Task: structure prediction
Amino acid sequence: MTNHDIHLKQRAPASIEANYISGKVTSNKDTILKFLGYAGREAPLPILQKIDTIILGIEGLLDIQYEYKTFHDYAFAIYTVGELIEEEIRAYLTKKEMMNALILDKAAIVALDAIKDAIIENIECDTQKFVSDEVYPASKNFPIENQKVIFDSFNNIDKITINPFYQLSPIKSVGVKFSLATRKKKFNRCKDCENPCENKQASRRSNRCL
Result:
């Protein structure tokens, strides 16, 4: 048995409950600031206060649903934060509270990322393999039609729908294919992004994998 095997077997499944994901959003406040354009510079106090207020209420807006399915050397996953966040963003826009809408939108992206990381941990626990890559429909070498392939792989998802143009609804919903490998390796999760952020060289890290 290798050290990789030992670390996998000792890992506990990750939680994907709303309180856990909202905690991840809170601990990744700096990421929200980066998305808002405040990487490396101080944000104004009113912006920080708005972020704190929105983060405080995000747990009540999370209506998480997810499912994943593993195969020999890959896995499919689909997940959403639900439509309550989408409705709240629209409400902010109606009231012309543009900054609040933008902050909540970015916080929802952080929540989606936290859900994905938890799904990855669970896949790795289930398969005793490591996720070595991730690819999304409409990215390079993975046509948008694969969104339907992923969606049709699941029977218990009732909070996500797909339209004839392969778009998922609610908007903050994701379908993804993960490659699986027997050895852990770093991968550039943003390699196919046409507008990479400053985190483009970062690979996924998990305390459970160390």
In short: The chain has a mean pLDDT of 87. The radius of gyration is 18 Å.
